[in-house]
C-alpha cells in the first residue's frame, strides 16, 4: 500500500487511450468552452453531467482506470492527463479532474473492498463528484495547509467516531456526493494521530458557510469554507487505520501534485497553440507578429519551458512508478512545472496584446488558472523550504 506501483498497460495501449482522449477533447469538449452553463465558481453540474455522458459514449470516461479496475502507471497516466488538459473542461468531462482523480487514487490504494464498492465505484463510473477535507482556516493560529497543526478532531463514541472542526478551500464540497475527511484523534491512546473517514454527502452536520470568490473558476462547486459539527461516522467508514492519516495524505498528495502538473501542462500546450496561430496571422508594422524578434523569442522560450516541464513530469512519474512515494520528486516537479507553465501562459498573453487579456480566446483563462496552480497543493516557497530541509539533513548524514 505504501510503496507498490501499478504495473500499467504498456506503450501501445496507452497510445491508443491518449489518442482517443485527445480527439474527444479537441472535437467534442473544446466547443463547450463557450457554453453559458459556467458561473463564477466553475461549470455547473448539469454541464458536467452532459459532458461525462458524451465521454461515456465515446469510451473515454475515467480513462486512467480500466474497466477491470487496472490502473495505468504514473507515466501512462501522465500522457492521458496531458491530453485531457488541452481544455479547461477536459478533465471534468473525462473524469480526470481534481479532487476526484486524487481521491480515486487514495481509495484504490487504502480502501477496503467494502469502501471501494460504496464510495470508489460511483466516482469511477462518473456518477458524482467528491471532496477532500484537509486544509483548514489559517486565522486564529489555524492549521492552514499544514496538517501537523490540524484542529479538526475526532473521538470514539461506541461504534462511531464524532468529528468536529472547520475546513477551508475545500474544492467541490458544494455538490459533492463523497467526502474524505481528515481529523486529529483526541483519544488518550492516539498520541494525536490523524484519521481519515469516508462520508456520504450532503450531511446536515457538514455546513458550507461560504464559497470563496477566487481567480480560478474551473472547479465545479468552487472552493468552500466548511463547518463540521458533531458529525457521526460509523467506525467501519474509517479509511485505513487509525492514526495513519498523515501517511495516507502523502500517499494521495505526491501523485496528486504530479497530476496537477499533467493537466496544466495540457493547458500550457493549448495556450501556446492559440498564441502561435494568432501571431502567424496578425500583422503589425508591415510584417507578421511572428517575424518580430521580440514575439518569436517569447514563443521559442515557451517551447523550451514546455519541454522542460514535460521532462520533469515524466521523470517524477518514473520515480513514483519505481515504488517510492516520491515526496521529494513531486515537490521538485510541482515547483518546476508550475513556474514554467506560469511563464508560458504569461508570454502567450503578452504576444497577443490586447486580445490576450480579453475573453475572446481561452488564453486569459489559462493564465488565471495556471497562476493559481502555483499556490494550491503547496505554494512554491513551501516546497522549496521542504527541499532545503532535505539538503540540510542529507549534508548532516554525509558528514556525521
UniProtKB/TrEMBL annotation:
Gene3D superfamilies assigned: Acyl-CoA dehydrogenase/oxidase, N-terminal domain, Butyryl-CoA Dehydrogenase, subunit A, domain 2, Butyryl-CoA Dehydrogenase, subunit A, domain 3
Organism classification: Bacteria, Pseudomonadati, Pseudomonadota, Alphaproteobacteria, Sphingomonadales
An annotated Gene Ontology molecular function: medium-chain fatty acyl-CoA dehydrogenase activity
Species per Swiss-Prot/TrEMBL record: Novosphingobium fluoreni
InterPro entries listed in its UniProt record: Acyl-CoA_dehydrogenase, Acyl-CoA_DH_CS, Acyl-CoA_Oxase/DH_mid-dom, Acyl-CoA_Oxase/DH_mid-dom_sf, AcylCo_DH-like_C, AcylCo_DH/oxidase_C, AcylCoA_DH/ox_N_sf, AcylCoA_DH/oxidase_NM_dom_sf
Protein's UniProt name: Acyl-CoA dehydrogenase
EC number: 1.3.8.7
Needed co-factor(s): FAD
GO biological process assignments: fatty acid beta-oxidation using acyl-CoA dehydrogenase
Keyword tags: FAD, Flavoprotein, Oxidoreductase
